[in-house]
Structure formats: C-alpha cells, structure tokens
Amino acid sequence: MTGPTPLLTTADLQELQLKTLERGQSSRHVVTSPLAGQQPSVFRGRGMELEDVRAYQTGDDVRRMDWRATARSGKPIMKVFREERSRELFLVIDRGPAMRFGTRGELKAARAARVAALLAFSALAAREPVAGIVIDDREQFFPPARRLEGVLTLLRAACAPLPESHSVVAAETLLEQIDRAAARGSLICLISDFAQWREEHLPLLLHLTARHKVLALCIVDPGEEDLPDAGKIRVASPTTGTICIVNTSDAALRIRYAKAMADRTALLEGLFRRAGITLRRVYTHRDVRQEMAGLDF
C-alpha cells in the first residue's frame, strides 16, 4: 500500500529550478513592473548602481572616475554608486482546507507550492535569503536560508502530502506572526486563495506594508468563478467536512453564484489596493511561468 502523495515531487522541483536558471541566463535587461519601485527587478542580485556624480575628493578610488565628465569639465569627476543590499524573500504558503480543491490543472495547494518554488529559486539565484511560513493545520516557520539545502527544507514542507485536518489558521493570527517573523524590509509574498480575508484585516495589512514590500498571489481554480451546469453534485465544506447536494442545473443559482464570486473578487481587490499591496491572480490550469512572467521575479 503506497503512502500519501506529495503535491510536487523532487523531479518537479528540479525541473522548476532548471527553468528558473535558464530564464535567468536569457534575461539580463532592466525591467519595469508593479514590484520594481526604485529597483530594476524584485531580485536584483549583487552589484553597484550608478546614483550620481560629484567632484573628486582626496582618497577617492580613481577606478570610479567618470572620464567623460572629467574631460568635458576639465576637473576630476567621480561616479557615486548606490550599493545594492540583499533583501529577504519571505514566503507565506497556504495549504489550508480551502486550498485542497481543484477542477482543472492541479490542486490550488499544488499551484501555491509551484509558485513558491519559482520565487524561492529565483531569490536563491540572486543570492537573496529565503524564509517563510507554511500553513495547513498548523504553522511551520522556516528561518532565512541562502543555500539550496535550507530552501529545499521549506519547499518540501510546501509540497508534502496534505493533512486530513479541517483546522483553519485565522488570518489575523497569521498576519501577526508574519510581522514578528519577517525581517524588516522583506519582500513578503502571500500565496493563498485568501478565502478568509475580510475588510477587518485592513489595519493589520497596513501595518505590514509600513514595514515590508508585500505581494499577494491569489490562487484561483477556474471552477470557482462560474458554476457549470453539471446537474446535481455533492459538495463538501472544506472547513467542516459537511456534505450537501447542489443542483447546478438551476440557472438562477448559477447566476447568484457568479455574482457572489465576482463580489468576492472585488472585495479582495479593494482590500489589497487600500493596503498598497499588488494583487496577482494565478490560475491552476495555466502555465505557471507565463502566469508569473510579468512579475519579473
């Protein structure tokens, strides 16, 4: 008898790492994205960025002299660089009951693990530390790691077989834990379907964005947006396990369902917009690298 199946295998992670490295080798241009701010991309790598020029001062390194500006002015002019500092990537990976759902592609929890792996391998390639929290029936905290072995410990937890528990970690509790655990100035990536998140969480989100850069990646199954006409189906509550029968052939029911889901989407968009958080929807049935391409991770 075989044991529970992991969401992603070691081979899956190896393939994602390889694709990330290939992308890094083929993309060397400065990018513009909602995440960029004053930085060329989310993961900048090491190096020096030209910030200004000024007159020569005693003790300056002549290797940083701006020879063209010096020739034009007739006076020694130096380049001034802003040193790029590493920034911690803090992953928040939701594997709660609502994420154990899927109609096309893969389970939402599997897509969350895949997204987390792409982000983690990108950060690792840029020599950025990776830390995070994995949530299912409990929270597992993983301290910052700069080496593959440490990052894989986090990713294996995100890819592990799902527990049978219906326990849910409250959003307010999670936000407080993230604020305590993440180093100030971190890039926090929230990977979830945000099923529990409400307007009352705005103050906690604002407190988080005052100290960190925050990105919300909403994992979406296409079956959640529109209820298909599939006759009578059995539906189980992700939090209680209660089973009920739903007649999806009822046109009025399908209309009400679509409106409820659209209202839910609008609520999340407004919540994150007011908190100053970039929200990206990532679908379970589409190519994950194409879904995240605009993030310039």
- Strands side by side in the biggest sheet: 5-4-3-6-7-10
Kindly estimate the percentage of residues that lie in beta strands according to DSSP: 15-25%
How helix-rich are the residues, as a percent range? 25-40%
Q: Output the CATH topology of the domain at 10-25 and 86-221 and 279-295.
A: Rossmann fold
- The level-1 CATH class of the domain at 10-25 and 86-221 and 279-295: Alpha Beta
What count of helical segments does DSSP give? 9
Reported for the largest beta sheet, the result is: 6 strands, mixed
Oligomeric state: single chain
Order of helices and strands: HEHEEHEEHHEHEHEEHEH
User: Segments where pLDDT lies below 50 for 5+ residues?
Assistant: 28-47
Overall pLDDT: 86
Task: Quickly list its features.
297 residues, alpha/beta, Rossmann fold, six-stranded mixed beta sheet, two-stranded antiparallel ribbon, 9 helices, elongated
Describe the protein's architecture and organization:
- The protein has 297 residues and is α/β, with parallel strands linked by helices.
- Among the domains are: 10-25 and 86-221 and 279-295, von Willebrand factor, type A domain (Rossmann fold, 3-Layer(aba) Sandwich), CATH 3.40.50.410; 50-83, no CATH class.
- The chain has nine helices and ten strands.
- It has helices at 10-26, 67-73, 108-125, 148-159, 171-181, 202-209, 222-225, 251-275, 288-291; strands at residues 48-55, 77-83, 89-94, 130-135, 139-145, 187-192, 213-220, 232-236, 243-247, 278-283.
- A six-stranded mixed sheet has the order 5-4-3-6-7-10, with helices on both faces.
- 30% of the residues are buried.
